[in-house]
Amino acid sequence: MAFPSGLVELIETLSQHGVEQAVICPGSRNAPIMLAISRNTAIQSFSISDERSAGFFALGLALRNKKPVILCCTSGSAALNMAPAIAEAYFQEVPLIVLTADRPQEWIGQWDGQTIFQERIFGTHAKQYFSYSTHAHESLDEIWHRNRIANDAFWSAFSAPQGPVQVNIPIQEPFYPEKGAALPVAHPVRKIQKWISPKLLDISIKTFIKRQLSSSNKVLITVGQMPMNSKIQALLEELMQKGIPVLADSIANLSGIAFDSHDLILANPKTWESLQPDLHIHLGKSFVTKRIKQFLRSNAEKQEWQVNPHPQALVADPFKGLQHLLEIDEVAFLKELTLLNFSEKQQAYFQAWEKEDEIIDSKRSKDINDWNELGIFQKISQALPQSNSEIHVANSLSVRYLNWTKFVPKGIEVFANRGTSGIDGCLSTAIGAAQGNPNLVISIIGDVAFHYDKNALWNSYVSNNVRIIVMNNQGGGIFRNLEGAKDLPELENFMETRQVFNAENTAKDAGVTYISVKNENELLHALNSFFQESDRAQLMEIESNSNINAAALAQYMALFKG
């Protein structure tokens, strides 16, 4: 049957969120949307021919019933005629979900009938804009993306301040079902539920948490990037003692509290089945590496929650299974968990993670004596100050080494530009953070990221509490470790950013003490005094060979692959 994919699921998801009314403007291109709406028995449909009037009619419905209303039109100037009502809805904070049918992208600007520029047609008068794919040959990622858009559209319209959102839907011909044919049966849709509460949790959320956790025997907490917070640290440490495994990245600032070897544990796919949770709870933002995401994405059966008191406008679903977004204070949530008792099966689940973590620790605790970046990071870690310091780590390989080498001492806060994960500005961020800071500010950065941002030292604000460690392997060494990239003939010339510069002249121009390190003895000697107080900032440049680094890392990772 010729019917655009995903439309039945879009309307079903909105219906499950409680959308009960739709205003449909007659047309041809939007006929498939109209059918998906009108044949959904949970939605009351109204047919209004004039789009300008239809927009205000929908506004009146939403004002009366305090719920989002669907507003649907065909392609072309039809959507422009809704603009006055959309603007009114924006400033009056009325939730409308505007579904605008569109021509396929390739026909925009090609003199095709009823074809205009519909993307973001309402401008800033729409809270959010989404483009919704209806391709018939969808991938699993595309199905997940469409479901996420449906959930996002509802919550964007419904969350305070309420307002209109646009979902633009390009539709290819043919788009009518065959004569007498039923619409496709909706695939199971995933409704993302939001729970919103102030710091004191209301009774409904407390009841929900207690009920769900009492029926779960494999609860897992993961923590992505997060500022250091002593209250959160203490509560997560208590939950670990009660049998809840907590996995954390180095940038989660839970060193010495949570299991931080997840990337190495999960390098062995044989561990995956026994370690899968039945309830996964995530705090913080992103993880550095892919493996933890791949592991959790592979389990479609689990429940998945995200605790995020201040989510961005678009719902983040990095593990592709989010069911409950809890917009509540993390401390209040964790306190609620500490009041619960957990089963013996939960204790066994914790012990499974604990055993794997101990195995990893025993393997990576051995000294690495060859001159390569793994051994260099290990020795720097052993020399780090235990207090009154903070680490600013650059992107690419540097931040990954922190996870792989158990680098960070307990109590030392780690910062990283993982919002976009670029190499630009990593050193400038550290220099800025050092201003008026009583701590020693340690920047760990690769040579490419350093040279890209060496203008960070082109000012008069490089304070004497700055310590810069430049890992110089003459290029972007990470690419020698990436499957697919490492075997390309273009690797050296076009991917690695090969370079022969060093940092000496830059350091001297900036009035920064420069230290060159080319072997283990020089490193150990330099580390004896590098982190001590001094009257100038210091830069230590450590040279190593990219090929040797890649081989050492591959050999190291092989220890954990089982």
UniProtKB/TrEMBL annotation:
Keywords: Magnesium, Manganese, Menaquinone biosynthesis, Metal-binding, Thiamine pyrophosphate, Transferase. This is 2-succinyl-5-enolpyruvyl-6-hydroxy-3-cyclohexene-1-carboxylate synthase. Pathway: Quinol/quinone metabolism; 1,4-dihydroxy-2-naphthoate biosynthesis; 1,4-dihydroxy-2-naphthoate from chorismate: step 2/7; Quinol/quinone metabolism; menaquinone biosynthesis. It comes from Aquirufa nivalisilvae. Pfam families: TPP_enzyme_C, TPP_enzyme_M_2, TPP_enzyme_N. PANTHER family: 2-SUCCINYL-5-ENOLPYRUVYL-6-HYDROXY-3-CYCLOHEXENE-1-CARBOXYLATE SYNTHASE, PROTEIN PHYLLO, CHLOROPLASTIC. Belongs to the TPP enzyme family. MenD subfamily. The keyword Magnesium applies. It comes from the Bacteria. Its cofactor is Mg(2+); Mn(2+); thiamine diphosphate. It catalyses: isochorismate + 2-oxoglutarate + H(+) = 5-enolpyruvoyl-6-hydroxy-2-succinyl-cyclohex-3-ene-1-carboxylate + CO2. Catalyzes the thiamine diphosphate-dependent decarboxylation of 2-oxoglutarate and the subsequent addition of the resulting succinic semialdehyde-thiamine pyrophosphate anion to isochorismate to yield 2-succinyl-5-enolpyruvyl-6-hydroxy-3-cyclohexene-1-carboxylate (SEPHCHC). Homodimer. Its EC number is 2.2.1.9. It is an enzyme of class 2 (transferase). GO terms for biological process: menaquinone biosynthetic process. Binds 1 thiamine pyrophosphate per subunit. Residues 26-107 form the Rhodanese domain. GO terms for molecular function: 2-succinyl-5-enolpyruvyl-6-hydroxy-3-cyclohexene-1-carboxylic-acid synthase activity; magnesium ion binding; manganese ion binding; thiamine pyrophosphate binding. InterPro entries: MenaQ_synth_MenD (IPR004433), MenD_middle (IPR032264), Rhodanese-like_dom (IPR001763), THDP-binding (IPR029061), Thiamin_PyroP_enz_TPP-bd_dom (IPR012001), TPP_enzyme_TPP-bd (IPR011766).
